[in-house]
Amino acid sequence: MATTSADRDELLAGGTAPKVPEKDDKIARKRTQDADSAASAANRAMQGLAERGEKLNKASERTADMANEAQQFYETARRLREKNEKASKSWFPF
Questions:
Q1: Euclidean distance between CA atoms 91 and 21, whole angstroms
Q2: What distance in Å separates the CA atoms of residue 46 and residue 52, rounded to the nearest whole number?
């Protein structure tokens, strides 16, 4: 039996893909948007974490610098006090 053009068109529905109902298309678009939004939120969160980590590192470095400077100040003040104590003893030779 020979296949006619009309039979072929009927079997293949005109050779086009089946149409997706509009409701299903909206659902698919919504899911894509939700996935994009979730990925965007995850990227923003990761970026925020990286920035906070950098700030914490800087704060830690500044804290260490301040501790070193405080130690140096203490040593200088101690030496100055000792020097003044020796000088004051020489003024009063009792």
A1: 104
A2: 10
Q: How many residues does the chain have?
A: 94
Residue whose entry in the numeric block shows the structure tokens 């894509």 = 32
Q: In angstroms, what CA-CA distances link 64 with 55, 68, 70, 71, 85?
A: 14, 6, 10, 11, 32
How many whole angstroms separate alpha carbon 23 and alpha carbon 17? Answer: 17
User: Is the per-residue pLDDT at 64 higher than 90?
Assistant: yes
Residue ranges per structural domain of the chain: 25-88
**Residues of 21-57 as b/e, b for ≥16 C-beta within 10 angstroms?**
eeeeeeeeeeeeeeeeeeeeeeeeeeeeeeeeeeeee
Q: Hunting for tokens 């899911």 — which residue is that?
A: 31
The pLDDT of residue 90 is 64
